[in-house]
Amino acid sequence: MREVKIVTVVGARPQFVKAAAVSRAVAALNAADEGVRLDERIVHTGQHYDENMSKVFFDELRIPRPAENLEVGSGPHGRQTGAMLARLEEVLLADRPDWLVTYGDTNSTLAGALAAAKLHLPSAHIEAGLRSYNRRMPEEINRVVADVLAELLFCPTATAVANLAKEGVTRGVRQVGDVMYDSVLFNAKLAEQSSDAVRRLKAEPKSFYLATVHRAENTDDPLRLAGILSAFERIDRPIILPLHPRTRKTLGAGLEKIGGTVRVIDPVPYLDMLALERSARMILTDSGGVQKEAYWFDVPCVTLRDETEWVELVEARCNRLVGADAGAILAAVEAFESAGAALPADRPGDLYGDGHSAEKIVATLAGREGG
């Protein structure tokens, strides 16, 4: 029996949700007893401390608990990434894995990729090739560096593959689909069984809008945040706004002045969020993941950013990119409403794979010894 050792580095709740799909695929491959066994160890950097990441969180979503928590915590980018790098190096020196696996574009992703490269260990980057082409975003820097250093680059879309090719990166590139789609298919069923968020909030399905605002480009810029909230206040349908702590802190006393039909609530657990997304008439968000979840739930999405990594959604007319201008936001909402708040009938249904991305990733990790 050949053994392949994997260290998976994650640092934020969305990464755990995605990594869980790969962990389930690892367990399935091991159960199939095909002459190779994957020994996966999950390391949580502690980049984001989330009170919801308790035993209940892991049990509810059937997510493997991390083998180790580095407890780095928050802080300036350089200090945080440096602390992660030092502590990850100790873990990797002790484990000497065959693969270091990272997800997405957080500082944990960057630290994992750097630590592996410095120790001459092969790394695999899941969600490779995404580009906003905005180098002012720390996420853009993180994903570019992770891609340059990775030996395996698992891309969710053909666009991601093309982005890498433009940068001269072709070796080790695999288009496998989006592992987040695997996660949504699995967790949407759990949400249907266990979430009562829509009923608890007394929301009428397909009659309310769901909004999220959390990206620093919006929350740290008073003019942008004011433009977004101004648009929300002029919309005549109920808007449910689970408010991110960063946004709440920025608003301060101004939170009480939000008017119109906006209903501000505390952040909700992941399964509740999926239930609200599925029941929403429209979604207004600056989140990358929520843009895709809207598409998978057949809900029109208005994206409160100037650019998006998920350009396929814009090209398919499922997503309208509006920035933070109140007039543009309202125009996009009206355009979707004029079409009955429905996505185009001719939209492609397989932009992000077939829901078996994790299986493809695990098969590749199990069959390769490097490069």
CATH architecture of the largest domain: 3-Layer(aba) Sandwich
CATH homologous superfamily grouping of the largest domain: Glycogen Phosphorylase B
Q: How is the main sheet built?
A: 7 strands, parallel
Strand order of the largest sheet: 3-2-1-4-5-6-7
Beta-strand proportion = 15-25%
Tell me the layout of helices and strands.
Layout: E1 2-10, H1 13-32, E2 36-44, H2 55-60, E3 68-69, H3 77-95, E4 99-103, H4 107-118, E5 123-126, H5 138-149, E6 152-155, H6 158-166, E7 173-175, H7 179-194, H8 197-200, E8 209-212, H9 216-219, H10 222-233, E9 239-242, H11 245-251, E10 262-265, H12 270-279, E11 282-285, H13 288-296, E12 301-303, H14 311-315, E13 319-321, H15 326-338, H16 357-367
Structure description:
With 371 residues, the chain is of the alpha/beta class. It folds into 2 domains: 2-178 and 353-367, Glycogen Phosphorylase B (Rossmann fold); 190-338, Rossmann fold, CATH 3.40.50.2000. The chain has 16 helices and 13 strands. The radius of gyration is 20 Å and the shape is globular.
Brief digest:
This protein is of the alpha/beta class.
Name its key features.
six-stranded parallel β-sheet, single chain, seven-stranded parallel β-sheet, Rossmann fold, alpha/beta, 371 residues, 13 strands
